[in-house]
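Nicotinate-nucleotide--dimethylbenzimidazole phosphoribosyltransferase: structure tokens wanted.
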Amino acid sequence: MQKIKPNLSGISQSCRDAMQTKIDGLAKPIGGLGQLEALAVKIAGIEQTTELRTEKRCCFVFAADHGVQRAGVSATPRKVTWQQAINTLAGHTTVASLAKANYCQVKVIDVGVDHDLSGTGVIDKKIALGTKNMVDEPAMTYDEALQTIQAGYDVAQQAIKEGNDLLLVGELGMGNTTPASAIISVILGVPAEEVVGAGSVISNQRLLHKTEVVNQAIKDWQPDSEDPVDVLAKVGGFEIGAKVGAIICAAENKTPLILDGFISYAAAVLAEKMVSGITNYLIVSHFSREIGSKKALDWLQLSPLLDLGMAVGEGSGAVLSLSLIDAMQSVLHNMNTLDDLSIKFTK
Ligand SMILES: O=C(O)c1ccc[n+]([C@@H]2O[C@H](COP(=O)([O-])O)[C@@H](O)[C@H]2O)c1
Ligand SMILES: Cc1cc2nc[nH]c2cc1C
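Answer:
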């Protein structure tokens, strides 16, 4: 990717209106399905059709390790990244089990895992054996940041070529709530204290240290908040960059993309900074338990579909939210219309 200049064809207002009219004609109170209606309308606008295409779906689990994980910012051992990458393909992780329940294919993509995953079925797009430790040096080079965005873009393009109607993005990367917080802090211009959270659960003492690590890295490397690639390079992660690429490719191809939790919000923040309005192509599955979630989602102007206190990542919330899309498909295919029943409202 030389220059990130996506060619977005826009959201169809006429398809949005037609979908809302279709829903308003169903035998129920106007607006009675609330956010589910907004969801169907959004998908219609992105896909530019009122025949919602949602049957074939694919969740990407972008996996990578983080130098900063060695700085004591996470409760979880580093090896969990590669272990869960393999376990996902075996069907035994949170995302894999929820994907099974929601008829979703899962692809695991190695964009920087600190382990040899060859021969496991994990897709190899490895940039390096993890990022550098942002305590000591920038997480990656500018060129690596572009490479990881390209990797995510290519994976998404392949999935769209394979006929997928919906794309979902999850991740595995022990320590990655630290770069996600750093990105959100820099782009939103809010203090690290307001966005650094407990990740996969740490003590208050470790939380203070994690916040200090983010503050110090931002101070030392001075990421340019007007250049999202620079922010990704200095305080980001490979799987976050890959998500950015997938988001751009999905939007270019009029394919709705479902974000997962906090790490996806960071990717969306970078993508929106690169391409203003790209959030119109995004759906947020759930409200992550991370403390920075509200700030990030307010900035993105996106509302999550679910609020269940989830904080697993992997794509678990994204695949779970497919049940709401399937519910809406059932509504559209099975319900009587007001006309069928000769119902007229008198306000
Ligand atoms: O999606 C979220 O909101 C989320 C919140 C907390 C943790 N995670 C997952 O847990 C890992 C990062 O947590 P941590 O504490 O190691 O930074 C990483 O693999 C994420 O997928 C994910
Ligand atoms: C087991 C385990 C699985 C995970 N998946 C995402 N983050 C995780 C953290 C842990 C600890």
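The pocket of nicotinate mononucleotide (ligand 1) is lined by residues 74, 76, 171-178, 199-200, 260-263, 288, 290, 311-314 (CB under 6 Å). The CA atoms of residues 289 and 311 lie 5 Å apart.

Cheers.
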